[in-house]
Amino acid sequence: MEDAAAALARKGPPAVEIADWIRRQISASRFVPGQRLVEVDIIRQTGGSRFKVREALQRLAAEGLIDIEEFRGATVRGASMDEVRQLYLARAAVEGICAADFTRRSSAAERRILADMTIEMEQCPQDHAPERFGRLNARWHAFIMDVSGNLVLADMVKRLNTPVHRLLFGTFYRGDRLNEAIADHRRILHAITAGDVDAADAAMRQHILNGYRFLTGLDHAIHEEDEVNPV
């Protein structure tokens, strides 16, 4: 007869899927910094067992996305601007490598897919669709990493991305930043199409660092506004 604990451990989705679900909630700001993650609620929403939910939370704690404290449980971790700086520097290096390898390895059909995705993103400002741009942007970057063949690096970027994506998403993909990101994508695509490995690497690195520069300016502006208009 099957052991009850073993049966419970196999109930519902595996811990990795539950961790992915929680990560998506954090990325979409449905779970925000400082929010307590209630195991019972996660079990209800994912269909996972308590054992698997706890394993998923441990995984996310190891990634630095959540904090787990005795008697208090799990809470979504905030990211300081210094942590964001480190994350962006890491992303710039890793995604630059992926852009270079995409240039080396991609087929004409794969480059055409990337070009079509770029054109689709360029329509977003006219349509006033920053959320759609955000989704397309994630697919665009993921496609480059997938085709590059760097699966370990792609997984690393997914973990690096999450704490950044939860910061000021609604403002990040608007106005000048949206147009700047589109111009960056066009430069990266041009280098890839030309088969220029070094230029693709450099353009991708600059694109990621441009995002950090924008976030830094946003953070400074918010702090200045808080000083002028204290709550």
Automatic annotation (TrEMBL):
SUPFAM superfamilies documented for this protein: GntR ligand-binding domain-like (SSF48008), Winged helix' DNA-binding domain (SSF46785)
Keyword presence, Lipid biosynthesis: no
Keywords for this protein: DNA-binding, Transcription, Transcription regulation
Entries under InterPro entries matching the protein: GntR_C, TF_FadR/GntR_C, Tscrpt_reg_HTH_GntR, WH-like_DNA-bd_sf, WH_DNA-bd_sf
Gene3D superfamilies: GntR ligand-binding domain-like (1.20.120.530), Winged helix-like DNA-binding domain superfamily/Winged helix DNA-binding domain (1.10.10.10)
GO molecular function terms noted in the UniProt entry: DNA binding; DNA-binding transcription factor activity
Domain HTH gntR-type: 12-79
Pfam families xrefs: FCD (PF07729), GntR (PF00392)
Hydrolase among keywords: no
PROSITE patterns: HTH_GNTR (PS50949)
Full protein name: HTH gntR-type domain-containing protein
Organism: Croceibacterium mercuriale
